[in-house]
Automatic annotation (TrEMBL):
This is Transcriptional regulatory protein ZraR. PROSITE patterns: RESPONSE_REGULATORY, SIGMA54_INTERACT_4. The keyword Transferase does not apply. Keywords: ATP-binding, Nucleotide-binding, Phosphoprotein, Transcription, Transcription regulation. Residues 17-131 form the Response regulatory domain. The gene is zraR_9.
């Protein structure tokens, strides 16, 4: 989707899909001609039964319904509408003297009522309110989902060169509508980076909606992304908006995109290319204006080569790729990060010059941080629970050997120190895919010492 020109949608009335039901022919003709002129799409029905059929089949933003119609009464239509499509706003048209019935309609959840003969300007204003109300509802929904995952602001801590480069890239790409692909190991801050893209974009006032593509069963993911119609499958008892709709005019963050099932990859590609979404079970697509940010810890080109990820989708999403550094490659950022994470639990840490004892910082800097900042956040949270005073000291942290080797002392007993040392060296090399410079840095020894130890080990085995 390339919606840049639509991003001025902050105050404009969003085009609505309106269902109109009235038995008066001249009104049907008027509405069929005038509503499209206001920019809306309208389906006209001559009675209540027809309106209910239309509600069963499609999704509407708004139902405009007369009360006194032959056959099914308007009130019944509203009742049915609230059952099968609770998100559709109902507006009642009443003749003189039926104000009481209109009030019953409001009690049933109707949005408002208009008395006949009504003026087009009144209708227009009402649709503006419906549109604003729907925007608000979407935002609330998105906020609720965000709140569930609330983890503070999108402020990315880190002054290491790699972080400075990353922040500069985000600042450049954020105001555009380009799709961004964020690559990084687990816990490196991919979601935070995605939020930062959103918050620095022109869409910052609009919803930011996140979904972990690996967290939902294959049969639910399409419905979660694109929505579904009532009856689309067993258990779909009402129409439901998908996240593309919820994120409309905002940003949709597709976390762990590499985990998306093959079939959904095809559907997603269609949506990204056409800018149109079709709810599961619905035949008519509708346009959405969504900026996409994806993230993965997987090697997508490798997945493509192995046939697990669509090549065309990869090229569609990697327009702008950013890589998040692992925490072990920016250990100097640890003091600031640790303070930032501690403030979440102990606000007073923000005002203290040294909320951590220097030895504790040293211990934190010595660890390999396979789980990156998420792991650091857990260690800090645990420390904040153990120690209710500041500064945090070494005793409040898990012991370094446990952290570093990830092994119990039982597993080490019976081995010589030399064996343990070599096991640690080989495990660290494995972690760094054989990169000796990175392994030596993490082990806290020089590259030369690492070579000496490896050579000595090889010679002793050969002897
Ligand atoms: N640069 C940063 N500054 C401050 N906090 C950060 C930073 N990066 C990550 N965090 C924090 O670390 C935790 C993990 O971050 P986030 O969820 O964004 O990582 P992720 O890469 O998306 O994780 P996963 O791979 O598990 O999905 C969060 O609490 C987040 O706020």
């Amino acid at each position: 989707m390339q919606p840049s020109k639509k991003s001025n949608s902050k105050s404009a009335t969003r085009p609505l899909k309106i269902l109109f039901a009235d038995d008066e022919i001249h009104l049907q003709e008027l509405i069929a001609a005038e509503l499209p002129r206001m920019g809306h799409e309208v389906t006209v029905c001559g009675d209540g039964t027809e309106a209910v059929e239309a509600l069963e089949k499609g999704v509407f933003d708004c139902l405009l319904v007369d009360l006194d119609m032959p056959g099914m009464h308007g009130i019944e239509v509203i009742e049915t509408c609230k059952k099968i499509a609770p998100e559709t706003e109902a507006i009642v048209l009443t003749g003189k003297g039926s104000t009481e019935t209109a009030i019953s309609a409001l009690r049933l959840g109707a949005f408002d009522y208009l008395q006949k003969p009504c003026k087009l300007v009144e209708l227009k204003a009402l649709f503006q309110r419906v549109s604003a109300q729907r925007d608000l509802k979407r935002q609330i929904l998105a906020l609720k989902r965000r709140l569930d995952r609330a983890e503070g602001s999108a402020n990315m801590i880190g002054e290491h060169r790699s972080m400075q480069r990353l922040k500069a890239l985000i600042a450049k790409v954020a105001p555009t509508d380009s799709t961004v692909l964020i690559h990084g190991e687990t816990g490196t801050g991919k979601e935070l980076a995605a939020r930062s893209v959103h918050e620095n974009s022109l869409r910052s006032e609009k919803p930011f909606v996140a979904i972990n593509c690996g967290a939902l069963p294959e049969n639910l993911i399409e419905s979660e992304l694109f929505g579904h119609c009532k009856g689309a499958y067993t258990g779909a008892s009402e129409h439901r908006q998908g996240l593309f709709e919820v994120a409309d005019s905002g940003t949709l963050f597709l976390d762990e995109i590499g985990e998306l099932p093959k079939q959904t990859q095809a559907s997603l590609l269609r949506v990204l290319e056409s800018g149109e979404v079709k709810r599961v079970g619905e035949s008519e697509p509708f346009s959405v204006d969504v900026r996409i940010v994806c993230a993965t810890h997987r090697d997508l080109p490798k997945m493509v080569a192995e046939g697990d990820f669509r090549e065309d989708l990869m090229y569609r999403i990697n327009t702008f790729e950013v890589k998040l550094p692992a925490l072990r490659d920016r250990l100097d950022d640890i003091p600031e990060l640790a303070r930032h994470l501690l403030v979440r639990h102990r606000p007073e840490a923000a005002r203290i010059e040294a909320p951590f004892d220097p030895q504790a910082i040293k211990q934190l800097k010595n660890h390999s941080w396979g789980g990156n900042i998420r792991e650091l956040a857990n260690v800090i949270e645990r420390a904040a629970i153990i120690n209710d005073a500041l500064p945090i000291v070494c005793d409040d942290l898990p012991t370094l050997s446990n952290l570093k080797l990830g092994a119990s002392t039982d597993a080490l007993a019976g081995k010589s120190l030399r064996e343990i040392e070599m096991e640690t060296i080989y495990a660290t090399l494995d972690q760094h895919d054989g990169n000796k410079t990175a392994a030596a840095r993490q082990l806290g020894i020089s590259l030369k010492t690492l070579y000496n130890k490896l050579n000595a080990d090889i010679s002793s085995r050969a002897a």
